[in-house]
Amino acid sequence: MSQAFLPVSRLSFIASPAHRPMSRSTYLELASQDVALPIGAELVLKQHPDAHAVLLDGPRLGRVIEDAARRFRTPLAFPIMDLQLEKAVLLETLGVPVADVAKFHFDAAPDAAQITVVRDRLRSGALTPRMRANNDALRHIAQNTDLVPVGMCIGPVSLMTKLIADPITPIFMAGAGETAADNEEVALVETCLELAVTVILESLRHQIAAGAQAVFIAEPAANKVFFSPRQFEADGGALFNRYVFDSNQRIAALLAEHDVDLLFHCCGELIDPMLETFTRLRPALLSLGSSRDLVHDAKLVPDDIVLFGNLPSKQFYSETLIAPDQVEQRGRDLLAAMRATGHPFILGTECDTLHVPGCETQIWSKVDALLRCTCGPRPGPRVCVATSVT
Asked: How far apart are CA 335 and CA 327, in angstroms?
């Protein structure tokens, strides 16, 4: 597939050095232009025959991310969404063999000394090759382009759930009143959550040093599968606040300290009070999954937080689940509905758009359809800033 695109600078917003640091008004301005924004750097990466090698080569990876932003005609340079990176660097720092990382779970709570070791080693620069390449890619965007360098990190609750074989039971037990002092499983959850926050803060410090102006925090596990809606109602959201809000607030505080924008993402199934909890983090942009009705959510989210989403990118691989014309129609309908609410909105995908071997043509056709959603007739003058040629 060959694609021809006009420069991102045709957008009225551009992240030139004169516009740095970023501000909340940047995203509000971008939303006012009815842009469409797929997150899909992996699709561009997989067009390279040596994609695995690119992932370990920071400057080349940076050029892939830049290429994705140009193709998707967005000033926001979103990286590859790899939510395994922080788990890998954490476990390798503790001496877990690389081959065991993916399936590793803690059987007992790590002790304070282990948490200190992880923090100190990461702070000193003991990163995995993939994490170093990601930071070098950010540096490429910051130093060589007019794009906004966007960092990426898993959220603390989502990382905690990857460190424990069964996180649901102890989370429920904590909601029922069990404490870390008298229950080993609750202690395991809470210690792993603290360990997750530690790793994420150190990862973010490196990304900020590399030039990140915004960070996309992906917290898909902060949902009603892991946190019982009945318990939420019974305790007034106390456990959700303690686990989800408090841990993410520490991350938001670090970003605010460095004038880096928080872009918060949760594609999980939510109840409204969970969504309202996210808004208290004051993200510049809030990204939600396709299960959410964004017109409804516009009533729950403050007007200075841009809503983003939420076309079903997890279905893009299949013509049966969704066809290109359906993507375009749903996108146009969502744009019109959100315009009617008056809430700032950027049309995008519910999550990143992943490469699926053998389905490349189908997926790219859906991405092209998403991009076309903002190129049709609009009230008043409108310029389509990109074209696609297959």
From this structure: 12
Find out whether 250 and 197 touch, Cβ atoms under 8 Å: yes
Three-state secondary-structure class, residue 122: helix
> Which tokens in the block code for residue 54?
């690119």
Amino acid, res. 292: R
**pLDDT number for residue 18:** 38
Among 28-32, 93-97, 136-140, the range of highest mean pLDDT: 136-140
The Cα 305–Cα 295 span in angstroms is 14
User: Under a CB-based contact definition with an 8 Å cutoff, are residues 58 and 133 in contact?
Assistant: yes
| CB contact at 8 A, 138 and 207 | yes
Q: Find the DSSP H helices in the chain.
A: 24-31, 41-45, 51-55, 58-71, 85-93, 112-123, 129-144, 156-162, 168-175, 184-210, 229-235, 238-240, 246-257, 272-279, 294-297, 324-341, 360-372
Q: How far apart are CA 60 and CA 53, in angstroms?
A: 9
Q: Is 323 helix (H, G, I), strand (E, B) or coil?
A: coil
Residue type at 276 in one-letter notation: E
Instruction: Collapse the DSSP code of 345 into the 3-class scheme (helix H, G, I; strand E, B; otherwise coil) and give the result.
Output: strand
Q: Which two tokens stand for residue 387?
A: 């074209």
Q: Among residues 303, 339, 353, 381, which one has the least CA distance to residue 34?
A: 339
Using CB atoms within 10 Å of the CB of residue 25, give its burial: 0 to 12 exposed, 13 to 18 middle, 19+ buried.
Answer: exposed
Q: CB count, 10 Å around CB of 53?
A: 11
pLDDT band at 13 (very low <50, low <70, confident <90, very high): very low
pTM here? 0.90
Domains of the chain: 10-372 (3.20.20.210)
Q: Read off the DSSP letter of residue 252.
A: H
Q: What is the DSSP string of 202-227?
A: HHHHHHHHHT-SEEEEE-TTSSTTTS
Asked if residue 21 has a cis previous peptide bond (ω within 30° of 0), the answer is yes
